[in-house]
Design brief:
5-stranded parallel sheet, single chain, Rossmann fold, alpha/beta, 3 domains, 16 strands
Amino acid sequence: MEKLGDVLKFFMEPRSVAVVGVSRKSGPDSFNLMENMLRSGFQGEVFPVNPQADMILGVKAYSRIREIHRPVDLAVITLPRDLVVPTIRECGAAGVKAAIVVGQGFADADAAGKRLQMQIAEIARAGGPRVLGPNTLGVVNNFNSFTTSFMPLSRDKAPIGLVCQSGLFFVGADNFTGKIGKGIDIGNACDVGFCECLEYLGRDREVEVIAVHMEGVRHGRKFLSIAQRVARQKPIVVFKTGESESGARAAASHSGSMAGDFVVCRTALRQAGLLFLHQGDKMGDAVRTLLHQPPLKGDRIAVITATGAGGIAASDALERYGLRLARLRPE
């Protein structure tokens, strides 16, 4: 029986990839994701699909997915939105297992885009390829030199897994989590979402800490059940945006997400055993601490400081987070 996270293998560990709508341009400022994929050192087969080209980056190009006549694990689709639904259907007919829809303009845009996104989700539910996105940079797996991002990313094999709803946290990972080894940008999450990603990263022996940027989440009860189980195996740190009313509206326009009641979400995540951050710039500190320090056995903390003011500030912070200042013996 297939486990929930197994679908991520086709996204994170593909043996063959079709890049549909790949640009014929290459070099600096071309943002050619196939070029970026090849430069990352991916060892699988790559099939460019563009009816306007015979060769792209020295690789034979195809006019349509169905002309490849080879097994394709993953299709990365970079087409205008009106061409995406028929392309997903063609992928299904060709036996493609998974698809990443890079483009924007779906539930993040308008009513027409929302209808298109619903059609994509319906195809996935009806047995078509599983879909990541739309509105996503896709994935990065530095442990097998694979990325679908059109933006250059670091190639560090760090034991950190990232799940986010914005490419900002991919491109800016060094300023968010620090180096990451594996990352999944779920974008609008019309099909594959947080549940599948946590299942996959929870079982992944190369990942020791999971960092999450969350705008909104579907299937809340299912997610919390999975998160609670995974959090017993490895720490999960969440930075949730959409706290304010204006922030929640921005989340809806960015990824089509319903941010939900912030306080309720925070409480539920904490009860499930997840670590909740109020500030994204603290994620790197949290990840490094969890990666290198053993878990606390109690709530008493000793503070060593060269300044009294620093000690007072630390004491205030400890109390704010449910910890207490340890009483040290004179000796």
